[in-house]
Design goal:
Helix 4 (105-112) packs antiparallel against helix 7 (284-293). The protein has an eight-stranded mixed beta sheet. The protein has a three-stranded antiparallel beta sheet with strand order 1-2-3, with no helix packed on it. A two-stranded antiparallel ribbon has the order 4-7. It is α+β, with helices and mostly antiparallel strands. Strand 8 (159-164) and strand 9 (169-174) form a beta hairpin. The protein has helices at 2-26, 73-88, 97-102, 105-112, 116-121, 146-157, 284-293, 324-335; strands at residues 39-45, 48-52, 58-60, 63-66, 71-72, 133-135, 140-143, 159-164, 169-174, 177-183, 186-187, 191-194, 199-202, 208-216, 232-234, 240-242, 248-253, 261-264, 274-276, 280-282, 299-303, 307-309, 315-317. The chain has two domains: 2-155, no CATH class; 161-306, L,D-transpeptidase catalytic domain-like (Beta Barrel). The chain is built from eight helices and 23 strands.
Length: 336
């Protein structure tokens, strides 16, 4: 029902813009006479016009890209890429997948709702998530005008990720404004031999500052311990499904790419635990949100702060899951 209402609102906005344009034209009012700031220069198609200011800068009314067939998750990225390719040469700015979807936040909500456990709550078992329909042939997406695009890009440029390991929390900020807080799992507090690295590896999640450097929209899955590829997963409810198609995000920390990823876990019972082989695990639904709020280059800070404050600003001391306080005290004793 919410999606239907959103579509109705978009349609009403579109027809209102068209009506205003027709009224202005019928009254003989030209864009170039309105405060001498804009003039109509091109009509690309029936759903859009492009404006150009005296300085040469271009702006545009929103466009509406129709979905002409049902799009499953398996087809989703190819479809979005096709829209970006089609409209990038038309709009007066550089269009990207992240910009397009951020202009249509309901798409993120739909993707998040494909989370296996959300579907189970609705009494719907999903074996192959890739077959789920996320865009319907009656849907349409807004291709933002230049003003809206600039506003979204400005927000994206001010977005950064904060991870506090002992708190088991990943936060998304826009400047100093907290947008989201997600539960996570982190690396185990031990060393372990990994076949894929052919060495004994410290499993603890690495701290420091860095950025998002790579996205894998179609990941393949290998057990790093034995190097064997797998295609299915055993869920928390003991049921087995195919692995979902959700992007994995690679970080670069302290200038080094360690293969430390932010990715969905199919076993959310492990959230709030030091359980992984070093990666940061999140819910499937949360992974979609993080993906669209963390394009390449997004800054990330991974810290290990034991002192935090709760919602009413009371100080809390967290459990030292990696034993860092003990190591510091041992080092201090040796120095003495």
């Amino acid at each position: 029902m919410q999606l239907i209402q959103q579509k109705m609102i978009l349609n009403r906005i579109y027809y209102l813009e068209v009506l205003v344009f027709i009224l202005l034209q019928s009254c003989g009012v030209k864009r170039e006479n309105i405060a001498n700031t804009e003039r109509l220069v091109t009509v690309h198609d029936a759903d859009s016009v492009v404006l150009e200011s005296p300085s040469g800068a271009k702006a545009s009314f929103p466009r509406y890209a129709s979905v002409e067939r049902n799009i499953t998750i398996a087809d989703y990225f190819d479809f979005v890429d096709s829209l970006v390719e089609r409209y990038d040469s038309i709009v007066p700015y550089t269009l990207s997948e992240h910009l397009l979807v951020r202009a249509n936040p309901w798409v993120i909500d739909v993707l998040a709702d494909t989370d296996y456990y959300r579907m189970i709550e609705r009494d719907s078992f999903v074996y192959d998530q890739k077959k789920m329909i996320v865009l319907h042939e009656t849907d349409s997406l807004v291709v933002p005008d230049s003003i809206a695009a600039s506003r979204i890009l400005n927000k994206m440029n001010k977005t950064w990720i904060d991870v506090n390991i002992p708190e088991f929390k990943l936060r998304i900020y826009q400047d100093s404004t907290l947008l989201y807080t997600f539960p996570i799992r982190v690396g185990q507090s031990r060393e372990r031999y990994l076949v894929m690295g052919d060495r004994i590896t410290d499993m603890r999640t690495i701290t420091g500052k860095g950025k998002i450097v790579r996205v894998d929209r179609n990941p393949t899955f290998y057990n790093p311990v034995n190097g064997i590829q797998f295609f299915t997963t055993k869920r928390d409810d003991e049921k087995r499904t195919l692995m979902p198609l959700i992007p994995w995000i690679e970080t670069e920390i302290n200038g080094i790419r360690n293969g430390q990823m932010i990715h969905p876990t199919t076993n959310p019972k492990t959230l709030g635990k030091a359980y992984s082989n070093g990666c940061i695990g999140v819910k499937e639904a949360d992974a979609w949100v993080i993906y669209y709020y963390a394009p390449l280059g997004t800054p990330i800070t991974i810290r290990y702060d034991l002192k935090v404050r709760d919602s009413v600003e009371n100080e809390i001391i967290l459990k030292d899951i990696y034993g860092r306080s003990r190591l510091k005290s041992q080092v201090g004793e040796k120095i003495k």
